[in-house]
Protein: GTPase Der
Amino acid sequence: MKPIVAIVGRPNVGKSTLFNKLVGDRVAIVDDQPGVTRDRLYRETEWNGKEFVLVDTGGLEPRNNDFMMSKIKQQAEVAMNEADVILFVVDGKGGLNPLDEEIAYLLRKKNKPVVLCVNKIDNFLAQQDDVYDFWGLGFEHLVAISGEHKVNLGDMLDVVVDLVEKVETPEEEEGLKVAIIGRPNAGKSSLVNRLSGEERTIVSNIAGTTRDAIDTVIEFDGNKYVLIDTAGIRRKSKVEESLEYYSVLRAIKTIKRADVCLWMIDGSEGLTEQDKRIAGIAFEEKKPIIIVINKWDAIPDKDGKTMKKMREELYAELPFLSYAPIEFVSALTGQRTTKLLEQAEMIFAEYNKRISTGLLNTVIKEAVIMNPAPTRKGRVVKINYATQIATAPPRFVLFCNYPELIHFSYSRYIENKLREAFGFDGSPVDVIFQKKN
Ligand code: GDP
Ligand code: GDP
Structure:
């Protein structure tokens, strides 16, 4: 998804002309008659290697009730809502117009970055005073340009690209980022409410304008946590959300941002296919995961063996997640919920753990002596040495003469030996075999 930059402004200020200059070929209709450009036009373009989609909108004339105008206004509204950055074009030659002020008011309500382009400044030295008035509209970013004569368009695009980049990488909250994922009704928002309400120390609750999730910052035991919950969004747009595709996309985005994932399952219902798909995403993104069985309070006839039995069943169904701890909680009563935070902290440390090369090689050597890599067709695999090349997740390279002979099960054996020796609870571990004689 490329960022969207929308051009808005009242009719006849030069939007289409600017659009055409920026996208390179003449696609929008330009005419001296106001309001000729009726439809939104989308074109991909780039500046300094940064790609974005430029949208030309019809004129935005808030007071005009004429049918055509209200249609145009509607379309401009849609474009503004979609946009990441807005290019607000005004006519520098014609001077400040009451309509500009109305549009400025609408734009301020959108709370999106705006670049005010004072257009038709074909000769800056002669027209400096024309530009001056427009500062009064109160926008931080103002550039005097001439769309028609391509004056200052580079400076304007620099500002646009800067803002686009800021929108794409919003400043992150401090604290461990804990994504709460799971299918609808698993109890995600109940858990967030429980964790934030219980501690009564919500620092802020930021509704992400460009994000697909709600961040809640909480403090517990002197540590900050950013709880990223996808549930709030789902409530807002239940209709679109019926398409599972979107929930999967959201899950991927959320998981990518997270330090640790809490994957919630409704314990009173057990695993569904949708559950497994969500778990698969977290696994593929190689994030540390805690499996949270929620609604423990609603599980009937529990006894001393229920947890153990459920654990075994889950690991049997999800062998690829055998490294993930399983916790049983009740978001409703708060049972064991704060333990999740402590555990998230702990597995994040495991995820970032670095093992010294000396210690690592001692463990690998021992593992190989106990269970040598199988020979095939008379060839003997010899593992020379190992080194950790990355953390988050920990990644180990084992150098050997015939990496192609190493079977998955042997790689698994090495991984298990590393886990026995060093822990890595809750964290994925990568083991790679590489050629070296
Ligand atoms: P829109 O209705 O906002 O899309 O405006 P247009 O792009 O159709 O332009 C309206 C009129 O302003 C046309 O006659 C353009 O030639 C003229 N115009 C556009 N940009 C400039 C400019 O930079 N300088 C001058 N002098 N005229 C311009
Ligand atoms: P989300 O869609 O994953 O955010 O789930 P919600 O937090 O909205 O919870 C869905 C439903 O399950 C609500 O009716 C909750 O009251 C209920 N629920 C959530 N957690 C628990 C729990 O621990 N025990 C019980 N019995 N019900 C719960």
